[in-house]
Amino acid sequence: MRLYTDEIVNAVCLHIADRRDVQPTDVEVQLSWEEQYGFTAEIWVNGRSQYLLEANLLEAIEQYMYTEYDRRVFRSEITLNGDEETSEFWANIPDE
Fold first, then answer.
1. Bridge pairing between strands 79-83 and 88-92
2. Pfam families recorded for this chain (predicted)?
3. How far is Cα 29 from Cα 34, in angstroms, rounded to an integer?
4. Distance between CA 38 and CA 81 in Å, rounded?
5. Whose CA is closest to 80, among 89, 72, 71?
6. What is the DSSP letter of 22?
7. Neighbour tally for 43: CB within 10 Å
8. What is the C-alpha to C-alpha distance for residues 51 and 32, in angstroms, rounded to an integer?
9. Residues facing residue 31 across a β-bridge
10. Which H or E run includes 52?
11. pLDDT tens digits for 35-86?
12. Would the pTM of this model clear 0.90, i.e. be above it?
């Protein structure tokens, strides 16, 4: 199974909204990949920004898979990938 950029962003929005007690629509997300840090995201909530590291993204995807697909997936099973030219990101998740 593969989650693409939109679903990864949704996963992060839902995860942050739950943690900050805000609506998912109050969260903005910009995914990126950097040589030094790997996969990251900059998020904005109520005008304040924060950076998430790859571990945070994997946690959000893990919870998203459980709540949206009723699948228990562990972070160690999720692989993030991206294409710099198209700015497309995806998460590979093993099939059941």
1. antiparallel
2. DUF2653
3. 16
4. 10
5. 89
6. S
7. 21
8. 10
9. 41
10. strand 48-52
11. 899 999 999 999 999 999 999 999 999 999 999 999 999 999 999 999 878 8
12. yes
